[in-house]
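Section 5.1 Outputs to date
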Amino acid sequence: MTTTELVPSVSITNLLSQRAAVLERIDRALQLLQEADEIATQANIGFPTIEFSGPGNKYRERGLRGGVGDLQTLSRHAIDSDGWRYLMSQTGLRTFMDAEARKEWDKSLSEGKFPELNASNIAATFELLHGARGEMFDRGVIASFKALSWVYATNLPQMFGKRIVVRFITSPAWGGANYDKCNVLDDLSRCFHVLDGKPEPDHRNGWYGRVAGAAKATGRLGNARRTETEDDYLEVRTFKNGNGHVTFKRPDLVEKMNLILARHYPNALAAPRGK
């Protein structure tokens, strides 16, 4: 499979051409700065401190005393990390990554632990991710069950029924949304979107904002007896004790998730009757 087939929505040739043009100009600028630094040193005059930060400020170089090569490395890291992020977001492969896979990928980018952005590395990376997309998606489904519907007494998952109860989705004390529990709902919503053949939802507009916004809209943050919010797949009612009642709006998609669970856990517990 060619790179064009793997990445149909992005012109790899154009992206790499622009990358080369940016790096060439940065290299020229750094050489000029190095010459200016040497002249300033010989003349015993001052030279400004230049701070160059990598993505997420994980690594930085102050001044030019470490050499132009160090700054060139940081330049490439900054350019290539954003290039990889762009490719991942525009091609839709993040859709098939579970939360753990996305976390590891983003960590590798922020720490500079990624291959150079070139045609061969793009093809190799996307072939690997494309081939593992089914496994990663299934892992995301299992993670949702583990977080929301796992019977620890038997160490077995319980299949989803019509609804589930998520404990402490809000704080009983002050009514604020629980970020970790809302992240689980985001993963669940992502699974439903993919199973429904729709793009992955934007997590910046995810369940944390919905739950927090619903509580705030009552004007009684921390004291509201009940709040309600929903998307296309989930309806969430939160109560003063912090628990959330999650109702699934698409039984057909719930069945698909249960079938994925059954493949991995043939002895999974059936959903309670009437739930």
